């Protein structure tokens, strides 16, 4: 839409929280815009720079990065102790933390952190034999980072196989081999899936 | 006739020639273009036999008829009929108008000798005539109306003619200029009737000129010019192309493309006035009903619903609603709305073609794939992620689900369905609530006629070389067979068919790909797409492209083909399973190495018939290829040929290199590439916990 019309929208500013909300007819598009604006406002408030001006994208705030890696470490430790539910909780917190990074920080970093955390959470789910959750987490991880993420690719393939969704598993692994053609684990999994399909067909 | 005045055509004997010439200049080309059969694919292809009539077949046929009427070229027809009438009238005028040619006295004719006669012959002939026609020798014969006067006159004429011909000068004048007095002045006539310039008519003529040059000429030139300015090369409005371009996004899914297509200005034209809002809420209500097999009956995703709801009321919102209703095969319970539903689909397909070219310009695999899938969906009236089985007659979403099995999460393609042994297949499909016996038969009959293209072999080659060298012009050759789903006793591929023999060296056309392998043989067209809901005829097209999956980009842009080089069916209508050859050319990468691509072969008219496979292009160092040539006695070019000289220039002193490893250039195995960087930034725990499942 070209900017040749001006529409006055009925908006309201909350006096205490300074959040903006619409008072007119509800519209999802408007609400989404306002939600983004309010998040930006909140993240600007939490900037601990002296003058309130957001810092440059790099270097990132080390505090949050440290927190995220601490959560991941904690998750890993729990996982090793076979406390899978704790591990899942830690990873979830870490994911939330990483996704909560303010908008001016580089999104590549978020992808990197989140894909690792999702991959780990998928593994924790798999250890609990929660195949469906594991598959979804692994897929999210792959969506964040396709290349060099063979473990997440493998985990979703495995989860699908465990749920005996063999055709999907086959397609998934075939796709993964486009990215990680030399990964031994994936090639093994592919064979395993082929066996399962043959068994199913017979 | 001896002055250089302009004479107007007072007797009206010349202007028919003028009018005839002018009219035929216009009429004949128009008639040829009218009568020449259209070369468009859609008009020359056969059809798939089907007696299936979808619901509202009358509306769909009505839309088809409307389109045909639009294509009928009524104007051209009228022009040519009018032209021929004028021509016929002019010919008639020419026949009936007496030609007034001024008669020139011709002494040869009078004497009755030929023009080539010599003086001697003329003299002897004159003497002969003197014996018979001299007044002294002839008798008056009143019964035959011969009087003394006429005999005398005749003799005088003969004598005059003889005198003229025996005079050297006059005779020469005759032979050279056709006139006894020598060269005559020209007379220039204007093939227009005189009344045009006669007193009082001048202003009408002037008015005519003003009308032609001042009004009609600017009008037609302007119409032509703005007509070409209004539409793009893909035959969509420029404004629509702008909208599509603005809405383009790399991450649009199949449903997202539908949303983008609704931005076409073409929809404003068909949904004008009060049509723009009529029934919008009803459509949306129907479209957003919960489905038995999918969350939303029309197959919209969360995102698509959001998109639909975000749009302002108006033609675009209605068009999007109609498109979804069409894709979901939703009954709208209203003749007008149903009609509009079938009307929007062909428009959307046209827009989608423009969208595809935009997506291709960005080169993003996902977007291009979505565009092609949308084409399939539009032609088959299927929502994104609907079961491909719904392409067959009588099969609805519920029935497709029933055939696929309740728990099935993936859709079965038509090929999969037809691959099930016949009795099991029937058992699955024919059941209460599913198909009846006859419906099943009809569905299977259609399935067996669909052109599924099965790739048998693919390889890369450079014409006349054994290796692909850097920066050479590579041909990607696909050998494929049309195997209709459910074909039994498919013969094995004849190995010799899979080879690609280079054309003869002198055959430039074949080498440059300008000519098909079988010269003179007409390309074979597959039958028109079986698309009972799509209100146009559509000839299926196949697109092949190579993609780089790591970057998600297209490496080699699509090559489209719609005809085959060998017949698909034999005389009795059975599939021949001939191996068809397709070639696409592109420049090889400038560096040697192994390049892995994913080949996509997509038919734009049928859902679920895509082929995706990995192909590896091995590019060898140029020096290696040369050494190979060195060893190869047969291909050694003679020193005195150009090729030989080129080679000796290129190879210089390196001809005695080490023995090369023999490798075939046309590898197609899927062993992957080693070009990918080893970026392993996994978290530490991943290293030790991979083996603890089971």
What features would you describe in this structure?
The complex is a heterodimer of chains A (202) and B (694). In chain A, 66% of the residues lie in helices and 3% in strands. Chain A has helices at residues 28-45, 62-80, 84-99, 107-127, 131-144, 150-162, 166-179, 184-201, and strands at residues 11-13, 20-22. Helices cover 43% and strands 10% of the residues of chain B. Chain B has helices spanning 15-35, 41-44, 57-71, 74-96, 107-111, 119-133, 148-166, 168-177, 202-230, 238-247, 254-261, 266-270, 280-287, 302-310, 315-327, 335-362, 365-380, 397-404, 414-419, 422-429, 437-447, 508-511, 622-631, 642-651; strands at 6-8, 188-190, 453-461, 473-482, 542-548, 553-561, 579-587, 593-603, 611-619. The longest helix of chain B has 29 residues, at 202-230. The relative contact order of chain B is 0.08. The chains are: A mainly alpha (202), B alpha+beta (694). Chain A: GO terms for molecular function: Hsp70 protein binding; Hsp90 protein binding. Chain A: It comes from Lepidopterella palustris CBS 459.81. Chain A: This is Tetratricopeptide repeat domain-containing protein. Chain A: One of its GO terms (biological process) is protein folding.
